[in-house]
Amino acid sequence: MAARAGAVVVAVVAVLAPGLGVPADAATVTVQWGQTLTAIAAELHTTVTALVAANHLADPNHVEAGQVLQVPSSSSSRSAAPQSIVIGRGDTLTAIAARYGTTVAELVALNGLGNPDHVEAGARLRLPTGGVSGGGMTLASYRLSTGGLPTMLAAHPDRLVLRSAFATAAARYGVPVDLLEALCWWESGWQSAIVSPTGAIGVCQVEPATVTFVNQVLVHGALDPHVPAQNIALGAAFLGSLLHATGGNVDQAVAAYYQGLASVRARGMYRSTATYVRGIEAYAAIFGS
Which of 34, 47, 206, 219 is the most buried (most CB within 10 A)? Predict the structure, then answer.
């Protein structure tokens, strides 16, 4: 999957002096044209709730370009974070995870979600109370006593049978099988019938343009994204090409699967991309165990 995240540019303007009615460790940001409060919160690793509280905003869905916002300190951001939210129309788990400084995997595990690509507007979603540490997710909460597999996978034998297809594809296209399994678990929960709003298909959520690229350039074949084993082969071939293009840099290759290689090279990882990479690498450790 590629090029799904939007660019965010935030200017940190100044550290405010004491005596202005704001904390001495607070800073300000100037809202750029086209930005949203969600994007600003994700870029600054705080929350929409914390920004609303710090700036006494009446409507968190409306900020003006040129408006100066106070940025809450990291401690106040944490204390202001809610324990649950109501999912808004058009919201995705990736956007929610970036907004509240957590990961899709944590949200899936905490809420027992079967399909990370499908959440209902109006549903209540529990949030991790401690967020994500700088080093990534805590793996212990996703391990089972038997096999070390994600709980939701162990509960679906029909998906477990795909492990042999992952092993075959990984060996054929020279990618680590645990990384491939983790990436496609994050993307779809190993569900073969789902199609994303952008048209990404199946287990590895391959975009139609990616299918064409892999078939015409990489494998010179006709792999069908609607057939689970062939979908996995498409994902493996594409991931293998990204690992080759990045000189084996796993972070960059996984980021490129999500954001697009040209974008990663030109702009670096977006915050949501970094969350995606951390989550997948944490899951790779689980599958590798």
Answer: 206
